[in-house]
Amino acid sequence: MNNRDIQAAWKYHDVTKHSHWSIRNNHHFLDWANRPQPFKIYPRIVPFPLPRDVPQTGVAALSAISEPVPSSLGDLVPDLHDLARILFFSAGITKQRAHPGGEIYFRAAACTGALYEIELYVVTGDLSGLDAGVYHFNPADLSLGLLRKGDFHGNLAQATAMEPAVAHAPATIVCTGTYWRNAWKYQARTYRHFGWDNGTLLANMLAISAASGLPAEIVLGFVDGEVNRLLDLDTPREVSLCLVPIGRKSKSSLPAQRETLALALETIAFSEGEVEYSAMIEMHDVSSLQTEEEVAQWRGKQQVFLPSTPAGEEVQLERPPEEEQPKDTIEQVILRRGSTRTFDEAASITLAQLSIILGRATRGLSADFLKGSSEQFNDLYLIVHSVQGLKPGAYFFRRERNTLELLKTGEFRAEAHHLGLEQDLPADACVDIFFLTGIQRILEQYGNRGYRAVQLEAGAIGGKMYLAAYAQRLGATGLTFFDDDVIDFFSPHARDKSAIFLLAIGKPLKRKPQ
Question: For the whole model, what pTM was predicted?
């Protein structure tokens, strides 16, 4: 099977759907004694500590998530402090909490089950304070571990079929997914979570890069085997997901490709035993690109998807003046962000607050699989419970018109409770935002790689919404759902689409002291 065998993606999507029947007939249980370790550790590599006293950018979060740095401003080269800032506010430990089984380490970006299966690596030339090399980032002690010495940017550029953003980047971050760390709880559905969790992390990474004055872009077109080999990954357990070139040099002087011999570096096992779920591994394999020619062809097949025509009543979203919008910095917002565990059902948010979340999070994503800010794979559908200025009901967000199209009115808290896997959070929230897409057209154009792209885009936009909500001192939580029931609820408008992601937004319920 290969990237163009799109029935493979459909097979994975269908087999990992949640339904009332599948949930009640899944006898999976959490083996706490076998819970994976939260960090990848190379015990024989001497860590290179990153600076902790990094200057903050002072850039407002709402600006950082919606105003990327153009790549045409000449040389913009990160130094060690920039790199430390980007890595910490993307995947660093921001808080920890004791529990009967030990410590839970909470990271800068949201993640399903707080399992943090995304690892970060850095491929860099010589930077101020850091020698050229291939490094692994360890959030446990905020350090880099040197895997390969020397400049391997030529290898990365070649693997991307000479993608300009990578060829001109002084440093590139590679995101990988470790299957077992998430599959311990979520089984084969982990491959969907790779997209969500990588995406929320990327929302932080792009925002912090922008606040640092550095261009950054998501690159999904690359030869998987070449990048996996460069990082010396044990691919049945860990695989490359995307590249993020950071900064730009106006003149590219790429080094020659270097030989990437197997390193066989020792790592500490995540658990005493691991369970392999073949469906997710097969999904990754069939969405992999094998050659530079295939990468170039994949990237060249892009086209703009045209919006449909409104058929119902529309509500114009607000555009609050800049001076009236929150000015909390991106660092402040990330440090206080956390997935809300309980919403105040009696509370409401304003139309202006919802408008800011939708407007700021959907101004465009810098990614090689999108043609620009005008394109977005995921459509946004809303169940509005308590937004001042909006009737309760179901809506469709028309991004190009900055409007909400009313699909049906009504109090749908009970329906939201059911759709969100019978959890209280979507019923108690002020608004639930569902990410839906026409998977067939994306697979026909992008192949199985398009399935990676649509999941990752949903996570990245959802991650921006997290930040926009917390910038306004609201709460947000990503949730799973009953796939086909979501489509039924929003049909006929959502007919022939598939559910990808769900984010609930509201006001956190403050717990009274015991």
Answer: 0.96
